[in-house]
Amino acid sequence: MINKIEEWGKWARHTGYERHSTPMYALMRANGCFHTGNNREPNITDEEALAIDKAVLVLKKNWLVLYEVLFLKYVKGASLRDIAKWYLTPLEYPKQVKMKDDDPRKKFVCHKIAGKMLEQAEKIVYKNLDFDPSTR
Fold it and tell me: What HEC string does 106-134 produce?
């Protein structure tokens, strides 16, 4: 099953479709007749992406940290380890911001926590969708 939120992230950062060999090919691809397997092009319709975008805005309004984790993962392409280290650790341990990374006293947020936060953010987004993503 296609992860619609991951495809939304591609859609959100997408700069336009690559050139196609024929106008018919471009028309078929634009209408979602088939997916070429190109990881840079989103495999999602604009209507689905806009519905997910609306649900993500609800997430941003009510749960800003969960939104940031989702945004960093799917739009910016950050790994869970990077999200935990560079975004969540300063939030959890603000007094350690000026410490060097190799300081033995410095604590870090585990990447598993970032993964759990991402799962929670995805559940909230799917709950707020206007359509059922499993039927498409």
Answer: CCCCCHHHHHHHHHHHHHHHHHCCCCCHH
